[in-house]
Structure formats: C-alpha cells, structure tokens
Amino acid sequence: MEELSIAQALVVMGKAIGAGLCMGIGAIGPGIGEGNIGAHAMDSMARQPEMVGTITTRMLLADAVAESTGIYSLLVAFLILLTL
Amino acid sequence: MEELSIAQALVVMGKAIGAGLCMGIGAIGPGIGEGNIGAHAMDSMARQPEMVGTITTRMLLADAVAESTGIYSLLVAFLILLTL
Amino acid sequence: MEELSIAQALVVMGKAIGAGLCMGIGAIGPGIGEGNIGAHAMDSMARQPEMVGTITTRMLLADAVAESTGIYSLLVAFLILLTL
Amino acid sequence: MEELSIAQALVVMGKAIGAGLCMGIGAIGPGIGEGNIGAHAMDSMARQPEMVGTITTRMLLADAVAESTGIYSLLVAFLILLTL
Amino acid sequence: MEELSIAQALVVMGKAIGAGLCMGIGAIGPGIGEGNIGAHAMDSMARQPEMVGTITTRMLLADAVAESTGIYSLLVAFLILLTL
Amino acid sequence: MEELSIAQALVVMGKAIGAGLCMGIGAIGPGIGEGNIGAHAMDSMARQPEMVGTITTRMLLADAVAESTGIYSLLVAFLILLTL
Amino acid sequence: MEELSIAQALVVMGKAIGAGLCMGIGAIGPGIGEGNIGAHAMDSMARQPEMVGTITTRMLLADAVAESTGIYSLLVAFLILLTL
Amino acid sequence: MEELSIAQALVVMGKAIGAGLCMGIGAIGPGIGEGNIGAHAMDSMARQPEMVGTITTRMLLADAVAESTGIYSLLVAFLILLTL
Amino acid sequence: MEELSIAQALVVMGKAIGAGLCMGIGAIGPGIGEGNIGAHAMDSMARQPEMVGTITTRMLLADAVAESTGIYSLLVAFLILLTL
Amino acid sequence: MEELSIAQALVVMGKAIGAGLCMGIGAIGPGIGEGNIGAHAMDSMARQPEMVGTITTRMLLADAVAESTGIYSLLVAFLILLTL
Amino acid sequence: MEELSIAQALVVMGKAIGAGLCMGIGAIGPGIGEGNIGAHAMDSMARQPEMVGTITTRMLLADAVAESTGIYSLLVAFLILLTL
Amino acid sequence: MEELSIAQALVVMGKAIGAGLCMGIGAIGPGIGEGNIGAHAMDSMARQPEMVGTITTRMLLADAVAESTGIYSLLVAFLILLTL
Amino acid sequence: MEELSIAQALVVMGKAIGAGLCMGIGAIGPGIGEGNIGAHAMDSMARQPEMVGTITTRMLLADAVAESTGIYSLLVAFLILLTL
Amino acid sequence: MEELSIAQALVVMGKAIGAGLCMGIGAIGPGIGEGNIGAHAMDSMARQPEMVGTITTRMLLADAVAESTGIYSLLVAFLILLTL
User: Fold this and answer.
1) In chain D, how long is the greatest CA-to-CA distance?
2) Which of G30, I49, L51, N4 lies at 20 to 30 Å from I74 by C-alpha?
3) Contact N54 M52 (CB under 8 A)
C-alpha cells in the first residue's frame, strides 16, 4: 500500500463515508416509492386486463420520475468520490 | 495523491459528509412522495380508462412539484461541493 | 488547494454540515406532504372527471403552501453557506 | 478567506449547525400536516363539487395555522444566524 | 468579527444548538396535530355543508390549543437566546 | 460580551441544551394528542350537529388534561433556565 | 455570574440535561395516550348523546391513570434538579 | 454551591442522566398502553351503556397491570438517585 | 458528600446509566403489550357481557406472561445496582 | 466503597451497560409479541365462548415460544454480569 | 476484584457490549414475529374449532423457523462471551 | 486472564461489537418476515382446511428463502469472529 | 499481517465503514419495494389466473427499475473499496 | 494471540464493524420483503387452490429478485473482510 500522510488518510475517510451515506440513504426513498408504484400497477393490470400496455408505459414514466432523486444521489456520490 | 495540510483535509471531509447527507436524506421525501402519487395514478387509470392522458399529465405536474425539494437538495449539495 | 488555518477549516466544515442537514432534513416533510396531496388529487380526478381543471389548480395551491417550509429550508441553507 | 481565531470558528460552526437543525427539523411537521390538510381537501372537493370555493378558503385558513410553527422555526433560525 | 474567548464561543454554540433543537423538534407535534385537525375539518365540511361556519370556529379553537406547545417552544427558545 | 470562565460557559451550554431538549421533545406528545382529540371532535360535530356545544366543552376538557405534560415540560425548562 | 469550578459546572450540566430528558421524553407517552382516550370519548359522545356525563367522568378517570407516569417524570425531574 | 471534586461531579452527572433516562423512557410504554385501554373502554361504554360500572372497574384493573412497569421505572430511578 | 476516586465515580456512572437504560427501555414492550391486551379485553366484554368474569381472569393471565420481561428487566437492574 | 483501579471500573461500566442494554432492548420484542397474542386471544374467546379452555392453553403455548428470546436475553445478561 | 490491565478491561467491555447488543437487538424480530404467528393462530382456532390440533402443530412449526434467528443470536453471543 | 497489549484488546473489541451488531440487527428482518409468512399461513389453513399439507410445505419453502439473509448474517458473524 | 502506518489503517477503516454503510442501508429500499411488488403480483395472479404470464413479465420489469438504486449502491461500494 | 501494532488493530476493527453493519443492516430489507411476498402467496394459494404450482414458482421468482440486494450485501461484506 502506498505511503500516506494523516491528512491524506482523513480525505479518503471523509470521501468514503460521505459518498457511502449519500448513495446508501439516497436509495431508500426511490426503492420504496418505485415498489409502491409497481405494486399498484400489478393490481391495476389484474383489474383492467385490456390496459396492460397503457399501464406498463405509465408505470415506467412514473418510475422514471421517482428514480430521479436516486440518480441525483449517484451523481453527488460520484462528485464526492472522483472530483473533490 | 497531492500533499495536504490537516486543515485542507478537514475541509474535504466536511464538504463530502455535508453534501452526502444533504442529497442522501433529501432523496427520501421526494422518492416516497412521488411513489405515492404514481401509485394512486395507476389506480385511477384502471378505474377511469378514458382519462389516461389527463391523469398522466396531472401526475407529471404533481411530480414536478414534489420533485422540487429534491432539486433544492441537489443545488445545495453542488454549492457545498463546488463553491464553498 | 489554497492554504487554510484550522479555524478556517472548522468554519467550512460547520457551514457544509449545517447547510446539508438543513436542506436534507427539510426536504422530507414537503416531499411526503406534496406526495400525499398529489395522490389524493389523482383519486379525486378519477372520481369526478369533470372537475379536473378545478382540482388541478387547487392541488397546485395546496402544494404551494406545503412547499413553503422547503423554501424556508433552502433560504436558511443559502444564508448559512453564503452570508455567515 | 479572512483570518479567524478558533473561538470565532466555533461560533460559526455552532450557529450554522443550530440554525440548520432548527429549520430542517422544523420543516417536517408543517410539511406533513399541510399535506394532510390538502389531501383531505382534494377528497372533499370531489365529494361536494359545489363547495370548492368554501373548502379552498378553509384549507388556506387551516394551512395558515399549521404553517405557524414552521414560521417560528424560520424566525428562530434567523435570530440564531443574524443576531446572536 | 469581534474578538472572543473560547468560553464565550462555547456559550454561543450552546445557545444556538439548544434553541435550534428546542424550536425545531417542538414544531413537529403541533404541525402534525394541526394538520390532523384541519384534515378532519375538511371532511366534516363536505359531509355537513350547512355547518361550515361552526366547524371553522371550532377548528380554530382546537388549533389554538394544539398550537400552545409550539408557542411554549418558541418562548423557551427566546429565553435561551436572549436572556440566558 | 461579558468575560466568562470555561466553567461558566459549560453551565450555560448545559442549561441551554437541557431546557431546549426538555421543551422541544415535550411538545411532541401533547401536540399529536390534542390534534387527535380535535380531529375526532370535528368528526363528531358533523355527525351530531345539535351537540356542538357539548362536544366543544368536552374537547377543551380533554385538551386541558393532554396539555398537562406540555406544561410540566415548560415548568421544568423554566426551572432549568432560571433557578438552577 | 458567580465563580464556579469545573466540577460544579459539570454538576449543573448533568442535572439540566438529565432533568430535561426525563420530563421531555416522559411527556410523549401520556400526551399521546390521553389524546387517544379523548379522541375516542368524542366519538362515543356523538354516538350516545345521553351518556355525555358518564363518559366525561370515565374519560377523566382514565386520563388520571394515564397521567400518572407523566407525574412520576415530573417528580423525578424535581428530585434531580432540587435535591441531588 | 458546595465544593466538589471532579469524581463527585461525575457521580452526580451519572445519577441525574441515568435516573432521567430511566423514568423518561419508562413513561412511554405505560402512557401509550393505558391510553389504548382507556380509548377502547370509552368505545365499549358507548356500545353497552348498562355495563359502565363493570367496564370501569375492569379498565382500572387493566390499567393497574399496565402501570406496573412505570412504577418499576420510578423505583429504579429512586434507587439510582437516593441509595446508589 | 463522601470522598471518591475517579474509578469509583466511573463505577457509579456506569451502574446508574446501565440500570436506568435497562429498566427504562424494558418498560416499553410490556407497557404497550399489556395495553393491547387490556384494550381488546374491553371490547370483548362489551361484545359478550356474560363473559366478564372469564375474560377478566384470562386478561390477567395474559398480562402475567407479558409482564415477565418487565420483571426480568427489574431483576437485571437490581443486580446491576446492588450486587455488581 | 472499596478501592478500585481505573481498569476495574471500566469492567464494571462495560458489564452494567452491556447487561442493561441486553435485557432492556430484549424485552421489547416479547412484550409486544405476547401482547399481540393475548389481545387476539381475548377477541377469540368473545367470539367462541365455548372454546375458552382450549384457547387459554394455546395462548400460553404461543406465549411460551414468544417468551423464549426474552429468556435468552436474561440468560446472556446473567452471563455478562456474573461470569464474565 | 482481581487485578486487571487496561487492555484486559477493554476486552471485557467489548465482549459485554457486543454480546449484549447481539442478543438484545436479536430478540426483537423473533419476538414480534412469533407474536404475529400466535395472534393469527388464535383467530384461526376461533374460526375453525375443529382444527385446533392441526393449527397448534403448524403454529409450533412456524414458530420454530421464526425462532431460528433468535437462536443464532444466542449462539453468536455465547461465542463472543466464552470463546473470543 | 492472559496478558494482552492494547492493540490486541482493540481487535477483540472490534470483533465482538462487529459480530454482535451483524447478527443482532440481521435477526430483525427474517424474524419479522417469517412471522408474517406464518401468520398468513395460519389464516389460510383456517380458510381452506383441506390444503393444510400443501400450505405447510409452501410455508416452509417461503421461510427457507426469508431465512437466507439471517444465515448470511450468521456466516459473516462467524467469519468476523473466527477467521479475521 | 503486513506492516501498516496509522494513516494507512485509517484509510482501510474509512473504506470498510463507508462501503459497508452504503450497501447495507442501500439494500433496505429495494428489498422492501420489491417485496411490495411481488406481494401484489401474487394477489393479482390469484385474482386473474389467465394473466399469469403477463403479470410475471411486468413484475420483473417493475423489479428491474426498483432494483436500480440497489445496483447504484453496489457500484458506489465497489468504487469506494477498489478505486478510491 | 499474535503480536499486533495499533494500526493493524484499527484495520481489524474497521473491517469487523464495516462488514458487520453491511450484512446486518442489509438483511432487513430482503427479510421483510420476502416475508411480504410469502405471506401474500399463502393467501393466494388458499383463494385459488388449483394454482398452487404456478404461484409457488412465481413466489420463488419474486423472492430471487428481492434476495438480490441481500446477496450484494454479502458480497460487499466478503470484499471488506477478505480482500481489502
């Protein structure tokens, strides 16, 4: 392992913990939200079988929006890890 | 890795942890909220198939508002990382 | 990276963590609240299709009020980052 | 960045974290509460279309009261940041 | 920034964090409680349109009581910030 | 700002944080409880319009009891701030 | 402010934080519990108007028991503040 | 204030915080539990008016059991404060 | 107050905080559980008035089992305080 | 109080806090679980009065299993306190 | 009490706290889960009295599986306490 | 007790706390999940008595999958304790 | 074990804890969300047996989206462990 | 026990705690999610007995997806323990 000063070690610690918390906590909301959307889409398909195609595309549209804060978290985690 | 003083390392730690918590925690609310909107939109479409277009645009409108605090979090995280 | 004293580093740390927590935690309430408003608006539109316009404007009005504490959080985060 | 003593840095840290927690946590209650009010107002409008105007003004009245603790939080955060 | 001793800085930190937590956490209960009152008032008005006036005044009366602990929090935060 | 020893500063910190947590956390229970009482009182008035007066006085009676622990918190916060 | 040793300051800090947490956390349970009792009493009165008196006295009796742990908390907080 | 050594101050701190947490947290369970018992007793009285006496005594019996862990907490808090 | 060494003070602190957390947290489960048992017993008595005696003894039997972990907590708290 | 070294004091602290947390937290699950079993047993007895004996013995059987992790916690707390 | 070095004391502390948290937290899941199984078994017996024997053995089978992670926790706590 | 260096003591502390948290927290999910499976299996058996055998084997199959993350936790705890 | 400097040890600690929290917390959201989707898919299949194929593919589609933040967490954990 | 430097001990501590939290917390989501899937599968089998085979395979398919983040956690925990 390469030689490091304490200051450099603190930088690595800070970046690892900051990025880890950012992506880890940031995955809770979209994961639960998209699960909620998907669960209700399953119910809707069973209630209106002829609308499967319509509901599938709308489900993906709603998922795309709910995914956005997850992608922001990924973006901030990358910024912390790679460019700070 | 470039040479750093302890003070500079503390700055990087603070910025990484601050921005990570900001975006990570800030993704919980919009993720759950938009999932809630999307889930009820799925139900509504199955109940009123002829309103799919209307509900889709209103769902996106409601999502846009619920997304706002997520975007504020992204903005504050950028400010912390890039301009502090 | 510019030279810093320990005191200056502590200031940056405090501002980054304070502003990050302010906006991050402050995004939970409005995100969930607006998601709740939007979800019930979807239901209402499906139950009363002829009221789509009325409900849309009232939904935005209710969202505007629920958004307010999110904007206060953004304001306080800006004050912490930029003028302290 | 201007020269600071450790004591002055501690003051800035304390003010940033104190004000950030005050406004961040203080935004949870009003955000969820107003979302609850707004969600039930949507339902009520769909059930009694002829009462849209009455319910809208009462919704804003109820929101104004629920907003109050959010405004107190903003006030205390300002006091902490600007006059302490 | 004026010159401070460490002891004076600790006082400012303690006052900022104490007052911030007091008002921030103290805003959760009244915010959620008043939201609950307001939400049920919306429902009641839609169920009994002729009682709008009566329910509005009772809603404000109930809100006034639920607001009280929020005002106590504001009072304690002021005492901490201004007179300690 | 007056001159202080470290010990005096620790006293102020302890009193500010102790009183702040006491009143802040102590406002959660009564706020939610009174909101619950008020919400059900709204429902009851809409179901039994002729009992508005009776329910209002009972609601205030129930609120008075639920308020009691909030007032105890205020009392303990005052004791901590003013007489310790 | 009177002169203090560090040991005396630690005593004041410990007493303030201990009593504050005791009363603050101790107010959550009775507040929510009494709110629950009161809310169901409101419903019961609206369902059985002729039993208002009976239910009011039983509600106060149930509240008196639920209040007891709140009073124990107040008692322990007083013991911590005044006699330790 | 009497003279103290650091060791004596640590003892007072530990006793204050230990007893405070013991009684504070210990008040949550009985408070919520007795509120639950009381709330259902209110409902039962409204459903079976002729059983008010029977239900009142059983409610107090159930409360007495639910109160027991609250009293244990008070007992342990007294032991910590007075005899340790 | 008697003279103490730092080591003796640490022992008192550890015992106070350990016993306090043990009994305080240990009171949550039985309190809520017994409240749940009691609440359903109230409902059952109102539904089957002729079974009041049977349900009362079974309620006490169920409470006795649910109480057991509360008594274990008291036992461990006593062991920590008195014999460690 | 007997003379102690710092190391011996740390041992007592660790044992007190470890055993306290073990039994305190370990009482939550069985307390709530047994309360749930007992509550449903009350309901079942009111629905099937002729099965009171059968349900009582099954309730105790189910309680015995749910109690097991509480007894494991007691066992581990004893091991920590007495034999470590 | 036998003589100890600081290192030996740290070992005892670590083992006590590690084993205590392992068994304490590990008792939450099985306790709640088995309570859930038992509660539904009570309901099922009241609905299908002739199946009491079948349901009792299946309840014990389901409990045995849900108990497994509690037993793993006990096993790990023993390993930590006795063989580390 | 054998002689140890501080470094060796830190290793034992880290391993005890790491393995304890791993198995303790890791027991929550499977415990609650298997309780949920078992509870619904009880209901299903009472609704379809002739399917007891089928449901029992499927319940064990579902439990086996839900148990898997509990077993992974046990595996990681063993790796931490025995081979690190 | 190879020789390490303190700085190198801090780097390993930071990376292990950062990556561990990232993947650990990041597994909560997708796990619960996919469980929700799967549970509703089971219900839908039982309600519309002829749609088993359609619902299965849509369930996998919805799972794929809900899985995404879990995969982002894995990606960030890998980045922290392997390339930082 | 082999001789260690402090730095080597910190590495072992970091790896044990990081891997333990990763797998421990990472077991919550899949455990609850798979329990949810399994519980609804039990209900579905009782409602549609002729579909037992179909639902069993789909349940395992849904479990396989929900298990994935648990396996990622195991993978990251292995990486932390064995290759860091």
Assistant:
1) 65
2) G30
3) yes
Correct CATH for L29-84 of 1.10.760.10, 3.40.50.10610, 1.20.20.10, 3.20.20.370 = 1.20.20.10
Q: C58 near D56, Cβ under 8 Å?
A: yes
Domain-wise residue ranges, chain G: 8-83
Interface test with D, best of E6, E11, E34 (most D CBs within 10 A): E34
Q: Quick check: A55 and A48 in contact, CB under 8 A?
A: yes
* CATH number, domain H12-83: 1.20.20.10
Q: Is the pLDDT of residue I2 over 80?
A: no
Q: To the nearest 10°, the Cα dihedral for N50, N52, N54, N60?
A: 170
**H51-58 CB contacts, 8 Å cutoff, 24+ apart:** H51/I45, H51/I46, H51/I49, H51/I52, H52/G51, H52/G54, H52/G58, H54/I45, H54/I49, H54/I52, H55/I42, H55/I45, H55/I46, H56/G58, H56/G61, H58/I41, H58/I42, H58/I45, H58/I52, H58/I56, H58/I59
**How many residues does this entry show for chain A?**
84
Residue pair E14/F13 in contact (Cβ under 8 Å)? The answer is yes
Among K4, K12, K67, most J C-beta atoms within 10 A, so best to mutate, is K12
Do A46 and M53 touch, CB atoms closer than 8 A?
no
Contact G17 F21 (CB under 8 A): yes
Chain H residues in contact with I16 by the CB 8 A cut-off are: 14-15, 17-19, 80, 84
> Residue G59 corresponds to which tokens in the numbers above?
């509600």
Q: What is the share, in percent, of chain N residues with pLDDT greater than 70?
A: 99
Query: What pLDDT digit, counting tens, does each position of C43-66 carry?
Result: 999 999 999 999 999 999 999 999
Q: Which residues of L touch K66 (CB under 8 A)?
A: 30-31, 34-35, 38, 63
Q: Which CATH code is given to the segment(s) I16-83?
A: 1.20.20.10
- From B82, B61, B81, B67, select the one nearest B17 (Cα to Cα): B81
What is the amino acid identity at position K34? E
**For residue I65, is pLDDT > 90?**
yes
In Å, how far is F1's CA from the nearest CA of chain G?
A: 13
Judge whether B55 and B40 are in contact, CB under 8 Å.
no
* Tens-digit pLDDT profile for residues N65-82: 999 999 999 999 999 998
Spell out which residues of chain K touch residue J32, defining contact as CB-CB under 8 Å: 31-32, 35
Task: Give domain G8-83's CATH number out of 3.30.565.10, 3.30.450.40, 1.10.599.10, 1.20.20.10.
Answer: 1.20.20.10
Q: Which CATH superfamily is domain D28-83 in?
A: F1F0 ATP synthase subunit C (1.20.20.10)
Q: Do G9 and F11 touch (CB under 8 A)?
A: yes
CATH topology for F7-83 is F1FO ATP Synthase (1.20.20)
CA-based nearest distance A81→chain M, Å: 7
| Facing L62 at nearest CB: one of N59, N71, N73 | N59
Percent of all residues in chain H with a pLDDT value above 70, rounded to a whole number: 99
Helix residue ranges per DSSP H, chain L: 6-26, 28-47, 52-78
CATH number of the structural domain A30-84 = 1.20.20.10
**CATH architecture of the region J27-83:** Up-down Bundle (1.20)
In this prediction, residues F26-37 reach a mean pLDDT of 96
ipTM, 2 dp: 0.91
